[in-house]
Amino acid sequence: MTTQTEQILENELVEQLIGLGYEYLPIKEESDLVANFKRQLERLNGISLSETEMQRLLLQLNQGSIFERSKRLRAKKLELQKDDQETIYLSLWDQKNWAENKFQLIRQMRMDGRYKNIYDLNILINGLPLLHIELKRRGIEMKEAFNQIHRYSHQSFLMGQALFSYTQLFVISNGVNTKYFANNKTGELNFKQTFYWANKENQKISRLEEFAQHFLAPPQLFKMISRYMVLSEANKRILVMRPYQCHATEAIVNRVKNNGGNGYIWHTTGSGKTLTSFKSSQLLQELPKVKKVVFVVDRKDLDYQTIKEFDSFSKDCVSATENSKQLIQRFLGRDKLIVTTIQKLNSVIHKKNKREQLLPLQEEEMVFIFDECHRSQFGESHRRIKDFFKKVQLFGFTGTPIQAKNAMDTKWGKQSTKNLFDECLHRYIITDAIRDENVLRFLVEYVGRYKKTATANEIDIEVEDIDRQELLEHEYRLEKIVDYIIKYHPIKTKNKKYNAIFCLPSIPVLNKYYEIFKRKKAEGAHDLNIACIFSYGSNESPEGQDETQDGYTYRGHSRDRLEEAMMDYNASFNANYNSQSSQSFDNYYKDIAKRLRDGQIDILLVVNMFLTGFDSPRLNTLYVDKNLRYHGLIQAFSRTNRLMGSEKSQGNIVCFRNLKQATDDALLLYSDKDAPELAYSPSYEEQREKFDEKVMALKKLVPTVDSVDFLPSEEEELAFVQGFRELIRLQNMLSAFVDFDLEQTAMQEQEFADYKSKYLDLYEKVRQNRKLNKTSVLEEVDFELELIQRDEINVVYILQLLQKAASASAEKRSLAIERLLQQLQAEVSLRSKKDLIEKFIRDNLPKIEEADDIPDAFEEFMRKEQAASFQAICQQYDLDQEKFEQLVKNYLYSQKMPSSDQLLASRKEKPKLLERNKIAQGIREELEGFVGRFME
């Protein structure tokens, strides 16, 4: 049986879409596309446009970035001046009634940009291409369809009248797998942000035929584009909601529309609850019956974070409240969306004189949405809200709902999330998110003397829940743990590419750990940036609940210790925070959050803070010396499992207490009852066995490194790339284990490096083919180079090796240089510099008498080579040197490639129209190569 071709797949989809109500148009040229757009605008707005009026409109539409065009699409009216000077206002679509819009379909549309491109399928709404579908035959990786769209976006979407720049969504499919994603600037398209559609039960809908039925039917597609996309003002990005976010939002809105009572959303941590709650709040505001939407968070730090995130989605969309007086003003004012803390809200509802000021709202339709609805709401505040507001509906969002198994004791008896919020309207649990690759698995390691096998994790420390607390908190034990962290932190965090939180049982223990880290840094044992934060007014029990220790709070002592830590922090970061005022402490919190996200803090010591609600993709490790249970455990673990590139393969949990049973119990409670093991990353033994199996399979294809050069066809080269890529992925996961040693596997380190060199040779072949516009089956695979780029192998490292080689005997020097050149061949980050380093070794190294002079000599060599290369590029493309130098600086600063217009503006003279694309591409490649060779 033959494989279904791309053409057959396309034909079948076209037939299906026509059956769903789309009108097929045989449009192939842009002029016909524009003519149809004009007809649809005239129909929708009940007007007639002259050709000159249409040209004025097209000129207006062809302005701004993709983000600005998306805002224009959603504008209520567009202003247009007619030929007789009358001003009219046009709509591009009817946002309230989907059926008033015209849904059409075109295929194989030709667009000429830098290259000639032919688009598979485009869906038009009122003549504007708002959805692009790219198909690949069965068996081809989805990433290739994504890469093709990436090229189209770069090469032709902005050509001509640029109507394709109004594309909102892309769909990619190979028939078996189908995903969707939002349009954005070329450099911001990310395959990690492509999503499968799913039904309300989170069952994936991946086959193209079924996807089209559920997602591409006109009512659903229109709903996705008009209701379930968010334009994030903070970073000018277009966001599209994932299926579970859409289902949850729809459930809440329908509940309010139908006066259906309360409800809660169980969406696991890391699944984007803030976006879901924002969109729910936004859509609820549009309902005339709703007077106020109040979003309630548990603590001031979450209040700040929520307002910041809501504001990033829509500038000034939300009113913050500094105190209860201001909260009352917001309630009585015109603002429809309010964000506040449960503490401020409780203050207003609890006190009679404040509560009476809200009497005008007592009979109004009010909606309260609670974030992480499992802590402070278990008390009188929840009841007071329900008692005071007569027409109130309460909704909760949580990743870890309190259930019967871990119900909390209150004066009204055992309370669970269901008791307070009634029905669960939608659930998306941690195992759903892991299956969908929206969060990572946990790699949980237990460090202590109970280990039964020979492993680096066996250290002589107490780990059990023993009664003798003084042993668990003894400095001897804490010092051993600090030594362990110092030794293995680089392994866990990929040489500090990521960072960690260390959660501790109490403030006194935190202070002991902080002092040990500080002392060892002064002794030169480590160079880690350690910070700490805690609320000095209270302490915590091992279970993580706020309470004092030994019957009193450590106000004086703890505050002094916090002040000392803040002084250290100020010295490290040239800051000026103190614990004397709540405002300064709040700013300290915000600064720590920012520096932790930016990677400037290596380890943050906490008791409770930052263990819920804090999101940072850079955080990949949690050290635990604290007893955690149920929702507290899942919340803390989940700080580590956000996605951040291919190299971050799991969230690392390093436990210095025996939390095995507590972890199993928590994951069983909050995951798929039939498959809780999905939340765990495979063990070291399992992954090493799999690695060895893949090595054996690879060597059947290429028994030796040299045999890669003699593979008879591109299909076999592709098989090698896919096989070695699997080894790279497994090696990346294994490298997180402290016991991992490549020498103990079926492939030695040098052999792995040699195969990697051949792998990179094939990648270079693909790059060259693309430049020559040649097709290759190797283009169908993602090489995932980020997995094999090692930050520690850089120019400084190479120079150190050269210095060692220069000091050795002639025979050893020759061997060392040979190995060094092999290493150059195998390192992604140094390939662009390979010819320069080889030239330096060949022409300059023999003339250098002292090894210590090598770094200065290399720096002078690179300076001359850089100047010569700069001159050559400017001469080749007739560039103004000052303008090109500014382009280089801008590119280095922003990490974003300049547009074609910016590149061409650096020339002394404008190029001919037909040469623009070719010249711009040439300058682009030279700029990228120049920065790679000399600046990175």
Task: Write up what this structure looks like.
With 936 residues, the chain is an alpha/beta fold. The chain folds into five domains: 6-227, tt1808, chain A, CATH 3.90.1570; 243-428, P-loop containing nucleotide triphosphate hydrolases (Rossmann fold, 3-Layer(aba) Sandwich); 443-677, P-loop containing nucleotide triphosphate hydrolases (Rossmann fold, 3-Layer(aba) Sandwich), CATH 3.40.50; 684-787, Methane Monooxygenase Hydroxylase, Chain G, domain 1, CATH 1.20.58.910; 796-821 and 840-934, no CATH class. It is 46% helix and 14% strand. The chain is built from 34 helices and 28 strands. A six-stranded mixed β-sheet has the order 1-4-5-6-7-8, with helices on both faces. Strands 15-14-16-17-13-20 form a six-stranded parallel β-sheet, sandwiched between helices. Helix 18 crosses helix 19 (507-522), helix 24 (684-701) packs antiparallel against helix 25 and helix 27 (795-807) runs antiparallel to helix 28 (810-826). The radius of gyration is 31 Å and the shape is globular. Mean pLDDT is 85; it is low at 538-556. Belongs to the HsdR family. Residues 254-419 form the Helicase ATP-binding domain. The type I restriction/modification system is composed of three polypeptides R, M and S. It comes from Saprospira grandis (strain Lewin). It catalyses: Endonucleolytic cleavage of DNA to give random double-stranded fragments with terminal 5'-phosphates, ATP is simultaneously hydrolyzed.
Short summary:
Belongs to the HsdR family. This protein is α/β, with parallel strands linked by helices and 936 residues long.
